[in-house]
Design a protein that fits this description.
With 281 residues, this protein is an all-alpha fold. It is built from 14 helices and no strands. Helix 3 packs antiparallel against helix 8 and helix 12 runs antiparallel to helix 14. The protein starts with a helix and ends with a helix.
Length: 281
């Protein structure tokens, strides 16, 4: 029992929120009423959660010596010694195998996206993150692969809107995480970094609003009410920006969202509004 809690913590279940893009395709592809599609997307989501957790274990194994010198990361199970490296390796392998088993039940294109995500995640941990531009692009690519996999799992074609908006928002989160880290080190992040974060967050908000008004979106969904779903999106982006600038402990996006009830509520409001608007037409 003593090893169970550290093992669960090492999986970082709060970070499973990052796999939400897997669910977007079934909502905006209008397949949420299809039981087969729902089952396929649920399996894809679960597989991404397992692969992501395996990646976190590998990351923490690689970084355990550095993490021990970090004021917050030193509490991670592997760095603190609560979870033995050998047990972490076994757990990571087990999670990867379980994800592969789940992926057998989803379309081949979704499996390919999952495999590509695993490769990109491993490459990021082993070296890409040390190359500033490539590291950010690798993280953004991981989110785009999630969105594409979810669409393929629902047997719909991922739209350019879905992939581009996911990519821009992912870049915004990557840069904002860097800003939070710089603020923790220096008290104040460089102004260029703050401006980049603001520009990407603004592009994400405006891009989503433009998506709702776009003629091809209206034609696809048969409704002009989709811009209503932008209200919780814009509110969440503004709230996230405020929390980012007022937090002093260098929390990343996943921690900020999980620790903020309003952001969680806004996320749920977006999902409920999207389903309601699309289901009505």
């Amino acid at each position: 029992m003593n090893a169970v809690l550290p093992a669960l913590a090492a999986l970082r279940p709060t970070h499973w929120l990052k796999n939400a893009p897997v669910l977007a395709g079934i909502v905006f592809g209008r397949r949420i009423g299809d039981g087969t599609a729902v089952r396929s997307v649920a399996l894809a989501f679960a597989a991404f959660c397992l692969v992501a957790s395996a990646g976190y274990l590998v990351n923490d194994l690689v970084d355990r010596d550095v993490d021990r010198a970090h004021p917050r990361k030193c509490r991670r199970p592997i760095a603190s010694g609560a979870l033995a490296p050998r047990a972490a390796v076994a757990l990571a392998v087990g999670l990867a195998l379980a994800a592969a088993m789940l992926a057998r039940a989803v379309p081949a294109s979704a499996r390919l996206c999952l495999a590509a995500y695993a490769v990109v995640s491993l490459a990021y941990t082993l070296g890409l993150r040390r190359v500033p531009t490539m590291g950010a692009l690798a993280v953004a690519a991981g989110f785009v692969l999630r969105a594409a996999a979810g669409a393929y799992a629902a047997v719909v074609s991922p739209s350019p809107w879905l992939l581009s908006l996911t990519g821009v928002l992912a870049l915004a989160l990557v840069v904002s995480k860097r800003e939070a880290e710089e603020r923790r080190r220096r008290t104040e992040a460089p102004s260029a970094l703050r401006r980049t974060t603001d520009a990407l967050l603004l592009a994400s908000a405006l891009g989503y609003v433009a998506y709702g008004f776009a003629p091809d979106t209206v034609s696809l969904h048969g409704t002009r009410w989709l811009p209503l779903t932008a209200l919780p999106v814009v509110a969440a982006i503004l709230r996230y920006r405020r929390r980012l600038r007022t937090s002093s402990d260098g929390q990343g996006p996943a921690e900020l969202v999980a620790a903020d009830p309003l952001l969680v509520v806004l996320g749920a409001a977006w999902a409920a509004t999207s389903v309601a608007v699309l289901a009505a037409h």
